[in-house]
């Protein structure tokens, strides 16, 4: 009973916030520990003693299938299927002991933020108003990956102490080179006519990181897209390329986990002692395996469409790539969710198997891991005010 009590002491959602990895969780308590108060991200110091987290909200998705990308293309304006929450632990030194969650798009978010942190809208809150702006910017990115947040804040020319971004200069430069290399052939092809001087190409490539440049608007307008959409499209484009790179590292681990879930190797070593629960466990294993397969399939579909439209464009047919750019934002959000979910699953698996290289788990350990996987892959996560 003691083992079961310990296993159930932390809610599955809180486990995901605490242990799901840096794509879905940003532990400001740990990050800002060595940063002086005046240099921390938020002016309201209470926010710097919280954990920001991402959670999916695909409420309109049909459980019975359909094309998730086609559905996402129909999203209007500001709808984003991944949302941002703030976990406020009762005790910052023991966040696993529970706390409250504030959801930025919740109906009562503004009153809760004011009550909890003293944040208000309006010029009378001189200085503090910057916190709302920063929270909204973070909510405009599908995941909490340091590279995406860093480039988002740089594009808005908002200075943040670099110690907040858990990414080295070397990795940052490498990612920028990869994104540039992926986008450059399209820019060169698009400018192969009169605008194709080396200097103008460089300016267009610079617009990747600074969508306010005139070249960004010129580029999207060449595809029949409003110039005002340049920021959204360029952000989604470089974000898509980032997730594509991230996937190369995480996909092999995800496939290994999927293969394991489909084999007899994942059956707990003490299953005979839990015979009454065997069928239920096997059904849970099958459910999680299907969730993982669906996530991998969605990623494959998005990236395959990107490759197809890219190839068509390079072969002189711009229409498919134009259509892809027009829907890139919804694909970017779905891709961000899927890659973050896989990253989280891989992170949770590595944490669980750290001292179990044989991958042979006992019944309660397997139950706990499945529960964590389930939450990481769940597209309709329920909001809970208390965790």
Structure, described:
This protein folds into 2 domains: 12-60 and 80-167, no CATH class; 172-377, no CATH class. Helix 11 packs parallel to helix 14 (328-353). The chain has helices at 2-8, 12-19, 28-31, 68-73, 109-117, 129-139, 146-155, 169-190, 198-206, 214-221, 230-261, 278-314, 319-326, 328-353, 363-377, and strands at 25-27, 51-56, 82-89, 99-103. It has a 4-stranded antiparallel β-sheet with strand order 1-2-3-4. The model is unreliable at 1-7, 61-66, 70-78 and 123-128 (pLDDT under 50). It has 387 residues and is mainly alpha-helical. It starts with a helix and ends in a 10-residue tail after the last helix. Helix content is 55%, strand content 6%. The protein is built from 15 helices and 4 strands.
């Amino acid at each position: 009973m003691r083992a079961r009590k310990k296993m159930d002491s932390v809610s599955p959602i809180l486990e995901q916030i605490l242990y799901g990895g840096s794509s879905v969780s940003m532990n400001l308590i740990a990050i800002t520990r060595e940063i002086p108060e005046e240099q921390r991200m938020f002016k309201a110091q209470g926010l710097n003693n919280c954990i920001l987290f991402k959670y999916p909200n695909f409420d309109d998705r049909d459980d019975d299938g359909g094309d998730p990308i086609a559905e996402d293309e129909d999203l209007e304006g500001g709808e984003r299927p991944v949302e941002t929450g703030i976990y406020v632990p009762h005790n910052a030194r023991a966040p696993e002991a529970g706390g409250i969650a504030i959801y930025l798009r919740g109906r009562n978010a503004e009153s809760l933020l004011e009550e909890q942190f003293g944040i208000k809208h309006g010029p009378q809150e001189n200085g503090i108003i910057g916190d709302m702006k920063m929270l909204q910017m973070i909510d405009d990115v599908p995941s909490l990956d340091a590279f995406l947040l860093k480039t988002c804040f740089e594009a808005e020319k908002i200075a943040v102490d670099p110690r907040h971004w858990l990414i080295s200069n070397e990795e940052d430069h490498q990612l920028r080179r990869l994104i540039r290399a992926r986008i450059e052939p399209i820019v060169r092809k698009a400018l192969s006519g009169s605008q194709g001087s080396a200097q103008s190409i460089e300016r267009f490539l610079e617009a990747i990181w600074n969508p306010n440049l005139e070249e960004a608007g010129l580029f999207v307008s060449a595809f029949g897209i409003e110039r005002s959409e340049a920021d959204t499209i360029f952000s989604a484009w470089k974000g898509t390329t980032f997730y594509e790179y991230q996937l190369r590292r995480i996909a092999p681990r995800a496939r290994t986990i999927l293969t394991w879930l489909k084999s007899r190797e994942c059956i707990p070593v003490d299953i005979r002692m839990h015979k009454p629960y065997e069928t239920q466990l096997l059904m849970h294993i099958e459910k999680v395996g299907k969730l993982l397969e669906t996530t991998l399939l969605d990623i494959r579909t998005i990236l395959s469409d990107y490759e197809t439209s890219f190839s068509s464009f390079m072969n002189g047919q711009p229409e498919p790539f134009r259509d892809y750019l027009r829907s890139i934002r919804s694909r970017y959000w779905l891709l961000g969710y899927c890659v973050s979910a896989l990253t989280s699953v891989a992170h949770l698996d590595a944490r669980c198997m750290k001292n179990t290289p044989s991958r042979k788990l006992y019944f309660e350990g397997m139950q706990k891991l499945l529960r964590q996987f389930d939450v990481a892959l769940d597209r309709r996560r329920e909001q809970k005010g208390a965790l």
